[in-house]
Design goal:
Helix content: 40-55%
Radius of gyration: 14 Å
Strand content: 5-15%
Order of helices and strands: EHEHHEEHHHH
Number of strands: 4
Distance between the termini: 27 Å
Strand order of the largest sheet: 1-3-4-2
Length: about 120
């Protein structure tokens, strides 16, 4: 888990506390922490109390957004830090259009993953 800078914080429209993510996914908090440890979700410390938070856009209807886990794996394999991955996922891309995370939420994960893989070249 990492501290977050103001630029990335401003890119992410909304955040969820870990217990809220657990509730939305219908799992225990310990399972969400395991997702974070395994790289399936990115959590950062935010706010005055430095609470762990996860971007709300990562969570769909009772599951992690389809394609997110694979995209995070590709970005990590490309050498991206958690902060860089968040910035990339939430920065508008004219060619998608929208942000990569919006495209994932719209079930356009193949396009997102292709762009993430191209970053390694």
């Amino acid at each position: 888990m990492t501290e977050i800078d103001a630029k990335i914080d401003s890119l992410v429209p909304s955040w969820l506390y870990v217990p809220d993510v657990a509730e939305r996914l219908g799992v225990e908090v310990t399972r969400v922490r395991q997702f974070m440890k395994e790289g399936q979700l990115i959590a950062v410390r935010r706010g005055e109390n430095r609470a762990l938070m996860i971007p709300a856009d990562f969570i769909g209807e009772e599951k992690i957004v389809k394609g997110l886990v694979g995209t995070l794996t590709v970005l990590k394999d490309d050498g991206f830090s958690d902060e860089e991955a968040l910035e990339w996922l939430f920065t508008p891309d004219e060619s998608l259009p929208g942000t990569p995370v919006q495209a994932l939420r719209e079930n356009r994960g193949t396009e997102v993953k292709r762009r993430a893989q191209a970053l390694a070249v």
